[in-house]
Write a structure and sequence with these properties.
The complex is a heterodimer.
Chain A (H helix, E strand, L loop, with lengths): L1 H16 L7 E3 L2 H7 L1 H37 L4 H54 L4 E3 L15 H10 L2
Parallel strand pairs in A: 1-2
Helix pairs in contact in A: 2-3, 2-5, 3-4, 4-5
Chain B lengths: L1 H24 L4 E5 L3 E4 L8 E5 L5 E7 L2 E5 L13 E4 L3 E2 L12 E5 L3 E4 L8 E5 L5 E7 L2 E5 L6 E2 L5 E4 L3 E3 L13 E3 L25 H21 L9 E5 L3 E4 L8 E5 L4 E8 L2 E6 L12 E4 H7 E6 L36 E3 L2 E13 L2 E11 L6 H15 L5 E7 L11 E5 L4 E6 L12
Parallel strand pairs in B: 26-27
Antiparallel strand pairs in B: 1-4, 1-7, 2-3, 3-13, 4-5, 5-6, 8-11, 8-15, 9-10, 10-16, 11-12, 12-14, 17-20, 17-23, 18-19, 20-21, 21-22, 24-25, 25-26, 27-28, 28-29
The chains are: A mainly alpha, B alpha+beta.
Chain lengths: ~170, ~450
């Protein structure tokens, strides 16, 4: 009976000490990947370009409104023309508001798309690193982590691998 | 003996009880989840008329599988005798298990100003299929010729066939902002028999999409539009801005971060005596603004401060009368970056072969679908351009303009997405061109999309 007990304890000990029993946990910081990788910087440039484009359209709309407003404020228009101009201004104003709303929405959507694109690429690398480093779990949310050893922080390696593909 | 008999009776009773339950639990069709944005067609063919779209990861019910095409229904339609087909979709993209989810709100909440009849078609002479009661919000979409498709309370599938019918837009007003949240409370009085809305065409009014926390780039770019908005409002409407936020005087040093996270980039330190406005408390972080800021928008924020730190270092100088409630609340929390479960599975396919030529460019039209964008009907063209060197934006802009002139339709916007060799055709395009039916609106190219192609190496 004792022999059986000893065997069981030994088996349990071996099982507990085997490498499979240890779940190796890694970590990446997605925000850093987006902010610090070269592709992330390209994406930021792209986003800034889109912002500029939207801004140009908005300014153009504003200029049109200012012209009409100036024409009205001169006070030399006939009553009918003034009414027409005021209606025109009202229509332009509504369009302008809509354009601003759309532009903000577009920029937010674009930002999401670009981040998803980068993270999709980063994730392929992450998978490879996880297999190579025998990681069982890789965490991605810095908010939930109190401490992480630099050895298991894979962010720099992912950024480096991302940069190498450019 | 008596005990055995009792057992026997109990078994029989249990079996009898279980049988009807099993029969009742057998639902009509199967639940599926699209693994990509999926077009819904009026028939089982990719060439048949487009009627709507399914979003990635959206839960749907399918049935009547034939020739690789399935009829798609709302997931809550479990009674085969009372279902409405929302369209037909290629079943190979409809997966049993949910994968990634990318859904955006669609349609627009409006309410009728009077009792409004729902018609079978976009004409006042068509059959009446129901009515709307005044001041009750309804979800509408696919505006065309002054008519809107109206949807059932809780409709999830954006398809013309999924509409209850059509209502005249003249009698609809946008739902007030706070009421928009109670979208599903819309009251629709329907006629006893509702047939599938078989006709009509048109499109969207998109609603508010998820608002991520602003990056440095976009924040800078968004700031200008918002600024203009405020300027215009004050010039033309002469409305006093509603008070919002809370002015605080800083007592101790407080660090302002770029995001709602202590790990995010440092922006600045607020020193004792500084007066700032705080608002939009989410996840224990306030957005912090200049004390005199009048525009309540996160893009105008200096950054974010941790509430507890602010409480230690800040002294309230009195709340503004009310916190502006009309502004739609933005979804809370830091941006969630979703990673696909199995990124080893690449969706990239071999480059298609060009079969047309314009402007000296060989290309292939990959897809021509109708969709909607922020309330406008949009014809979307996905184009693959076969080139060996990176074309200049001007060349692509000219090329896109030529396509637009050939394919534009009255009353519809056009969006042309241009892909280059080596790119994933299901992912973001290299160039995007947008046109109204009369003039070009925007053209821009994303260098990011070239990542992994020969054009970037």
């Amino acid at each position: 009976m004792n022999q059986i007990k000893i065997v069981i304890i030994a088996v349990l000990l071996v099982a507990a000490l085997s490498p499979q029993a240890w779940a190796r946990v890694g970590f990446i910081n997605p925000q850093r990947i987006v902010n610090e990788s070269r592709i992330g910087k390209v994406a930021q440039d792209d986003l800034a370009k889109l912002g500029k484009l939207k801004d140009q359209r908005i300014r153009a709309g504003q200029n049109s409104m200012t012209k009409i407003k100036n024409a009205i404020s001169k006070g030399n228009l006939s009553v009918t023309t003034q009414k027409i101009r005021e209606n025109e201004l009202e229509v332009l104003y509504r369009k302008h508001e809509e354009l601003i709303k759309q532009s903000n929405q577009d920029i937010r959507n674009e930002e999401n798309r670009l981040i998803q694109f980068i993270m999709h690429k980063a994730d392929k690398i992450l998978r490879r690193l996880a297999v190579e480093g025998e990681f069982s779990i890789i965490l991605t949310d810095p908010e939930t982590i109190g401490y992480i050893s630099p050895e298991v922080d894979l962010t720099d390696r992912v950024i480096k691998a991302l940069n190498e593909e450019m | 003996m008596a005990f055995k008999k009792m057992n026997y009776i109990a078994c029989v009773v249990l079996l009898l009880l279980l049988f009807p339950m099993t029969a009742m639990s057998a639902e009509f069709g199967d639940i599926r989840y699209p693994d990509r944005p999926l077009n819904l067609r009026i028939k089982r063919s990719p060439r048949s008329k487009w009627v709507g779209t399914l979003q990635v990861g959206q839960k749907v019910r399918i049935a009547y599988l034939k020739n690789g095409w399935a009829a798609v229904f709302e997931p809550n339609m479990t009674d085969e005798a009372d279902v409405r087909i929302a369209g037909y979709a290629n079943s190979k993209y409809l997966k049993k298990k949910p994968g990634k989810v990318q859904t955006e709100p669609w349609g627009e909440l409006m309410h009728p100003v009077t009792v409004l009849n729902i018609r079978e078609k976009r004409t006042p002479r068509s059959a009446k299929v129901g009515s709307l009661t005044p001041r009750n919000n309804v979800l509408v979409d696919f505006p065309e010729d002054g008519w809107y498709a109206v949807f059932e309370k809780g409709a999830t599938i954006r398809s013309k066939l999924n509409a209850l019918g059509f209502v005249k837009g003249d009698y609809l007003e946008p739902a007030p902002a706070p009421a928009r949240e109670t979208a599903t409370e819309a009251e629709i009085v329907t006629e006893p028999v509702l047939t599938p809305a078989q006709s009509g065409s048109g499109e969207v009014r998109s609603a508010v999409a998820p608002v991520p926390t602003a990056e440095k780039g976009p924040a800078a770019s968004v700031a200008a539009p918002a600024e203009s908005k405020q300027e215009v409002k004050s010039e033309h409407r002469d409305k006093a801005p509603e008070p919002w936020g809370e002015i605080v005087t800083i007592k101790h040093k407080v660090i302002v971060r770029k995001e709602r996270s202590s790990k995010s980039n440092y922006v600045k330190t607020l020193s004792p005596g500084d007066r700032v406005k705080v608002d939009m408390l989410r996840n224990g972080w306030y957005a912090v603004f200049e004390a005199g800021e009048t525009v309540r928008g996160e893009h105008r924020a200096l950054g974010y401060v941790f509430k507890r730190q602010l409480e230690q270092g800040g002294q309230s100088a009195g709340k503004s009368a009310t916190v502006q409630k009309a502004t739609p609340a933005t979804p809370s929390g830091p941006k969630k970056i979703v990673i696909k479960p199995d990124p080893f599975v690449s969706s990239r396919r071999p480059d298609p072969k060009a079969d047309q030529h314009r402007h000296g460019i060989s290309f292939k039209v990959l897809e021509e679908a109708e969709t909607s964008r922020q309330g406008f009907d949009v014809v979307r063209l996905k184009i693959f351009v076969q080139v060996s060197s990176l074309p200049t934006p001007n060349v692509l802009e000219d090329f896109a303009a030529t396509l637009w002139k050939e394919k534009r339709r009255k009353g519809k916007q056009m969006e042309i997405l241009i892909y280059l060799p080596g790119m994933d055709l299901e992912d973001i395009a290299f160039a995007v061109a947008r046109y109204s039916d009369t003039e070009p609106l925007e053209f821009w190219a994303r260098r990011t999309a070239l990542y992994g192609t020969d054009f970037m190496k």
